[in-house]
Amino acid sequence: MRPLQKGTIISIVRGVDPHEIVPIAEALLEEGIEWLEVSLSEEKQGLDNIKLLSETYGDRLQLGVGTVIHKEQADRAIAAGARYVITPGWERELVRYVKSLDMQIFPGVYTPGDIMQAVQEQLQVVKLFPASTLGADFVKQVQGPFPSLHIMGVGGIALSNINSFYEAGCSSFAIGSDLVPRGATRQQLSTIRERAKQYKNILHEKG
Fold first, then answer.
1. Of the listed 20, 31, 34, 127, which one is catalytic?
2. C-alpha to C-alpha distances, 136 to 11, 97, 106, 152, nearest whole angstrom
3. Which pTM does this prediction carry?
4. 127 included as an active-site residue
């Protein structure tokens, strides 16, 4: 798996039927979005999607799992083909467990205390969630004590506010329904493609 680079967009896929997931992933790849996070908010469906995407795309897709809240979920997702783990909040033991498997984990953080604990665990990337609640100014402020930390903005990120979060210091973004609607189908491919182009163009111009 490649390192997470500045300006990366991760597409969050949630509630998508396995019969629809491959054309959606193909559209994202064709528009230059190679990172995809499959949420386990609907666990069986999510695991089925991870397995199918892993078998279909292999190394072409930077495939991860999100909404992981306990070790057993991480185990099942990794067995299905996930290459990194994203959590909604901070949980030290889960972080240590995933790291012990030699897997990348991008844990959710909400406070400077959460961030401090992540730094103590020698993590280089944290997921700020929900970013839109905290606001871009929060990101700017935490750059002071944590200047080298890679902050991924997640939660409420949209075309209307991604600029402000990027300028404040978010290095990457995981984007949900504003890019791939929950439960999306192939009938929405044209919209997904257009949104993907818009997001890529914004970050390309900033880069």
1. 127
2. 20, 31, 20, 12
3. 0.96
4. yes
The answer to whether residue 3 scores a pLDDT higher than 90 is no
Residues 3 and 5: their CA atoms lie apart, in Å, by: 6
d(CA 117, CA 174): 22
Give the residue among 161, 155, 149 at the shortest CA–CA distance from 141: 149
pLDDT tens sequence across 59-103: 999 999 999 999 999 999 999 999 999 999 999 999 999 999 999
Contact between 192 and 172 (Cβ < 8 Å):
no
Q: Are 191 and 166 in contact (CB under 8 A)?
A: no
| CATH of 9-206 given 3.20.20.70, 3.50.50.60, 3.40.50.300, 1.25.40.10 | 3.20.20.70
Per the annotation, the verdict on 71 as an active-site residue is no
